[in-house]
Amino acid sequence: MEEMGCLKIYLLYFFLAQSKKKQKYKIIIYLAAPDILKLNNKIYLRKLNSINKKSVEIQIKKDDKIVIFSDMHLGNGKRNDDFKKNSDLFHHVLKNYYLKKNYTLILNGDIEELLRTTYQKIKKRWHSIYQLFDKFNQNKKLYKIFGNHDFELRLRKDIQTEYNLYESIKLDYNGNKILVFHGHQILYIFEKFNFLVSFVLKYIANPFGIKNYTLSMDNKKKIILEEKIHDYSRKNEIISIIGHTHRPLFESLSKYDFVRFKIEECCRKYVNATEKQKKKIEKDIIEYKNELVSFSKDEIKKEIKPSLYTKENLLLPCLFNSGCCIGKRGITSIEISDEFIYLVHWFDKNKNKKYINYHKNKIKKLSGSDYYRIELNSENLDYIFTRIKLLT
Ligand SMILES: [Mn+2]
């Protein structure tokens, strides 16, 4: 019954959000919002518990390398296909980096944009990408997790796919758990009704060129989702790696928060540093300051500023988000290898020059291409789990 109530509010919200008189309806939307939240509060714990308990568990061995991508939104190759602009970059990176280096590939949801088109059309258009998925699969190194945009694969038995489909994967790292799941479950508790959303998108939104509703998820919703999963991970002393919001997170921090945090840390280190170290720290501070300045106002407002920092509870490094593969500037991924976890950004030099002068030891050109890999963040996993245990 709770879910039926939520569905009604959701549908109301959906239609109002698409309306031209958006401003006028905003009050109604905000009046309805607390109900949705109250409802979710009761359900989210149950849902996260079930995701955690039912999860398939995989041991991470010492020389295992893992890469996590999410939110590709593979479409039919037409105007509305968000994946198109990064498709060459993604293909190259997957083939010449991750496959070559023997990585295990975890696809963490919203791989296909099935709310807008069909699996057959997607497979036909992106045949070369699926060929690469097949290669990982043949080596038993592919795990495909569903999100809200490719949930149809789970729901409909008539769609044949070659890959096992999971709700979540639990990685066991020396007895510590890393839970990988898409994350939509928090605000999308009515998965069963996905077909209604699909109907609206395919037959109403698509022909009229209306943009994707869930893609323009507002900041308030992003924060709620992140908060709930952060709290659950903290209480259970696990790390959660999600996607869905398209906002990269490392140790529960957004890019913007991370840079500010780093500047503070540098200043603290500076006091007791030797002359030689001081020179290096000064250089680092300049680079971080430049990075801070390079965020556009729009970026700060839309993507970066909403912060888990402002919460009453202590912020623990237990939430990570791999971002997405349809970003304007490139694609992001999360890697786990050699006892470390990394947030990685890939970009094409010809399309984006923002990071071309990034910290020299963290940027690498992929030979024979104009594609670059940068390590935005990295940290030792033992150190992260120690902090989670000490601070809980
Ligand atoms: Mn999603």
Describe the protein:
The chain has 12 helices and 13 strands. Helix 3 links the parallel strand 2 (65-69) and strand 3. Mean pLDDT is 84; it is low at 29-35 and 211-216. Helix 1 crosses helix 2 (22-54) and helix 3 (87-99) runs parallel beside helix 5 (127-138). It is α/β, with parallel strands linked by helices and 392 residues long.
| CATH homolog superfamily of the largest domain | Metallo-dependent phosphatases
Number of E-state strands = 13
* Helix/strand/pairing category: alpha/beta
Indicate the proportion of strand residues.
15-25%
Largest sheet: 8 strands, mixed
| Ligands and ions found | manganese (II) ion
CATH-scheme architecture of the largest domain: 4-Layer Sandwich
Task: Name the helix and strand elements from N-terminus to C-terminus, one letter apiece.
Answer: HHEEHEHHEHEEEHHEHHHEEEEEH
CATH top level assignment of the largest domain:
Alpha Beta
- Please state the overall shape, judged from the principal axes of the Cα atoms: globular
- The percent of residues in helical segments reads 40-55%
Major sheet: order of its strands?
A: 5-4-3-2-10-11-13-12
Count of domain modules: 2
**Count of helical segments?**
12
Low-pLDDT regions: 29-35, 211-216
CATH topology of the largest domain: Purple Acid Phosphatase, chain A, domain 2
How far apart are the first and last residues' alpha carbons, in Å?
35 Å
Give the overall pLDDT as a whole number: 84
Q: Indicate the radius of gyration in whole angstroms.
A: 21 Å
